[in-house]
């Protein structure tokens, strides 16, 4: 008999309401793979773009139904042949391309790392996208000590990570956010600035020496302001304007995620040396609501689905 699992999936692209809880065949671990019983899965703009019909080129053609979600935490319940260093019962966090909004996910054993006991499931499930996206983006723009980075959506999960990583590297960070989040950004070490008309002039006033690079977590007007302020468009990364990046000459996040990087930031969180707040958790049945919230582009911290 085929083993089944529950997953939040969609049978056709569209708005958040296309996400439905379905019973689908549960994946099985093959050679070099582990299967994880998922406890929490992070939600991010990448997932919303996939749900709307976009797929990163490296995935090729895919059929339906599709299960979004590329970050997770849970307990290993199957270990395939030729896997060493990961055992059934291990608590892990990890990453994949899709399929994390489900009771089970199968990934290469190299895609998981041990979850420290002091990292809650909700944090562990949403940590990878924030820290890996932020570090890869900052590496991609070549941010150096003494430079100024503009982060749009700085109070969100990727923004929160980016502010801390850039500050650790000796950069000045200007972060856009609603005024309610300004004290939060100051606590992270960023100089906050409010969104809206006149943003470019407000940033210029805060950075008379200019802005060297930008991380766009908001899109639209924020991306336009970034292009106005940053001389070299190759030093602008957008997290949301996937379809326009090439024509505008700005970057998408490039590079490989790694379990080493994920484990490094999980350890920092466990030591109290890295902040990563969870804004809200949703049940699997509420995946559509989670997508509605992520698409507002506002809010502090990470959105997570618990399973």
TrEMBL record:
Top-level taxon of the source organism: Bacteria
SUPFAM superfamilies on file: GroES-like, NAD(P)-binding Rossmann-fold domains
Q: Which InterPro entries match?
A: ADH-like_N (IPR013154), ER (IPR020843), GroES-like_sf (IPR011032), NAD(P)-bd_dom_sf (IPR036291), Zinc-ADH_QOR/CCCR (IPR051603)
Could you give a GO molecular-function term held by this entry? Answer: oxidoreductase activity
Q: Which UniProt keywords apply?
A: NADP
Domain Enoyl reductase (ER): from-to ranges: 14-305
Supply the name of the protein.
NADPH:quinone reductase-like Zn-dependent oxidoreductase
- Give the species: Nonomuraea thailandensis
